[in-house]
Amino acid sequence: MSSANDTLLSVRDLAVSFRSGEGVARAVDGVSFEIYRGETVCIVGESGCGKTVSALSILGLIPSPPGEIVAGEILFHGLDLVGLNEERLRDIRGKKIAMVFQEPITSLNPVFTIGDQIAEAIEIHESLPRDKIHQRCLELLKDVGIASPEERLQDYPHQLSGGQRQRVMIAMALSCMPELLIADEPTTALDVTVQSQILQLLAALQKRLGTSILYITHDLAVVSHIATRIYVMYAGLIVEQAATDTIFKSSKHPYTQGLLASLPSRLKKGQQLPSIPGTVPDPAHRPEGCPFHPRCSFAIDSCRVEFPEMCDYGGGHLSRCPVLFKDVSGEGDRP
Fold this sequence. Notes:
Rossmann fold; 12 strands
């Protein structure tokens, strides 16, 4: 278990709201998590759970209006990023914390070459001559496994494949050797083979450079071999957190169990995969009590009215389900 001295980023009780004509939607509601130096942490959950909003909050990229961080702290090396002015945030973005976005085709500028776009962050944050910047761009493309890097630097985004564009995004994010890399669903639009290659690339770069990674995904299987710890997010809340092995072998929240049950495997060949009924609730109309209770087969009357606190299983394993906690602790019966 890492110590407090190893903590790179600490998010504490983060709450983010969005205002609209229909009222206020609390997209993130009291989220806390930590990332230690050199580890890979995953936040997993369905679309609409608040994963990306949490990540964008770290970099101060929540559009305001309509969005606003209404509570909490985001401590990077002990410095609270919430409330920093834009100039100070620009010094951190790209240089100390970088992000790989979900859709490279919309994140890359179609009218600039790949070389110009990789060089931009280096030019902003480091005083290097042009030939040194060019050399680093070449090295970055080699590092992320792009063949003929000299030629690719002259290409435009539309001339590259989806996998190549994603590798370029990773090269851009690593251009100033950040301490923390945030990867937001970086393999969603890629086929399985390329997805595996990108995951292997991130794991290799993390091991070689010592960069911490915050990986955001809706698919637990994606991070099963690269994440140190997993935070499961639902309806703007962390509902379970534990080491990766613990999550896969001994999950204690019905939502996590539902996500795991829906994963395909050789043992389920020919069988219909189970799914979680219903959808993630609208942040503006979250149900009373446990937000998962309308979709939960274990829900009892108290789940509909009482907001669940975290239950501690020890060893950093926390779950927001008192019903299953009572079952394993012998304090009650499983419904």
